[in-house]
Amino acid sequence: xxxxxxxxxxxxxxxxxxxxxxxxxxxxxxxxxxxxxxxxxxxxxxxxxxxxxxxxxxxxxxxxxxxxxxxxxxxxxxxxxxxxxxxxxxxxxxxxxxxxxxxxxxxxxxxxxxxxxxxxxxxxxxxxxxxxxxxxxxxxxxxxxxxxxxxxxxxxxxxxxxxxxxxxxxxxxxxxxxxxxxxxxxxxxxxxxxxxxxxxxxxxxxxxxxxxxxxxxxxxxxxxxxxxxxxxxxxxxxxxxxxxxxxxxxxxxxxxxxxxxxxxxxxxxxxxxxxxxxxxxxxxxxxxxxxxxxxxxxxxxxxxxxxxxxxxxxxxxxxxxxxxxxxxxxxxxxxxxxxxxxxxxxxxxxxxxxxxxxxxxxxxxxxxxxxxxxxxxxxxxxxxxxxxxxxxxxxxxxxxxxxxxxxxxxxxxxxxxxxxxxxxxxxxxxxxxxxxxxxxxxxxxxxxxxxxxxxxxxxxxxxxxxxxxxxxxxxxxxxxxxxxxxxxxxxxxxxxxxxxxxxxxxxxxxxxxxxxxxxxxxxxxxxx
Length: 528
What we know:
By secondary structure, the chain is of the alpha/beta class. It has helices spanning 40-47, 81-86, 91-107, 111-126, 129-142, 147-150, 159-173, 189-201, 213-219, 238-273, 278-296, 361-368, 403-408, 415-424, 441-455, 471-483, 495-501, 522-525; strands at residues 2-11, 14-24, 29-33, 55-60, 64-67, 177-181, 205-209, 222-227, 230-235, 321-331, 336-346, 350-354, 376-381, 387-390, 459-463, 487-491, 505-508, 513-516. Among the domains are: 75-174, no CATH class; 321-525, 3-Layer(aba) Sandwich (Rossmann fold). Helix content is 41%, strand content 21%. The mean pLDDT is 86.
């Protein structure tokens, strides 16, 4: 299936992988884990043939299916979701050709037309064409796409729905090797459970990057840990990997400490002896050589992952009402996604926007952020309101522009202050000068959040801000926002994040019904 030999990968002049070798056989279910920015996405891109390596060899046998972190269907906006899913096996073209041959046959019942249609129909049948549509709909339903949405043009679907369509297309294709980068982003709990079952039952090989620990534990039989440029393999489930890694880290830490102690003892002894007799000086020279050999072979104690310790400064005070929305409606050429949405958000309130996928949650936030125009209705910001928008697809982060330049767009603070702010999100060192387009998904999330902090806004629109974050970073961001006294409008499928923020009110989409928050709603956050 896949053989990797002596692979080395550089990203923005930074080596993220050195001399890595491993194999993936049919049926292997591999979880690729590591902190944000360790190089997991870059490794998947190299394995998929979308990025060149600096050294080494990648041998692939069989068909390949790759779902990047933010998949976007490469199809005409007018193409239906169903036809795009069918394109995973080429059945969309085969069906179109069969239909064309049928029209020709009806117009002319010649022997040649009959033979061409018969041959095409037999090939379509052998390729699973007649069962393909039901299979495609089954996969789409499993991933949370409503039956009526599958027949709509891709151009009218929400961002989350389009990502589901692309994931469904790759799963439908039935590749021998699947490379999945954060496939559970934007999936509700039922769709995640369906995907776990699909991966377990899939006969092909799978390499998956995910911060969804339940997915990894349920579907994975082997874990590859990437950190500081090295790959370490562990057999078993994700839970077994965590236990084995904890024991290994304890062993390495103890060994490194013992070796360091012995190196210091021998170095001190040799230093004393070299000032004594000539014979002892010769012995000291031998001891120094031994110390050099020990240093070359010294174990490296595992580095403790830095926690995100960010603080959102108190925002400037605004008026009593931060935002007023009146009779907003939005459509994309077809039926309206939502209509007559009216609500008001007061200073310091936390409003959670809930609704099934396609209910218009992201569309609503994009309108308020002035990134999209409403079909009808209006909104206005309150007195002295300053709006900061976190977009789930990181539209504001541009390739070719350095990280530090993105920060300067939000604040006129000096470089030292901006670097310190980036550092609080674990974006340290040369990353400040790095092209923002080369950042990992988790690093882009941290940069977008750092921009919000730098902007000193008092009204935040947060659209799935914890996607792509590793668990420690997710906890740190949730804690910082929970302590922040400003106004927030939030879209999130993350129950722990929502619980930490303690929203006061809920806006149910697409009907636009406003209600008070109740803890019972936590049970349905991941579904809406």
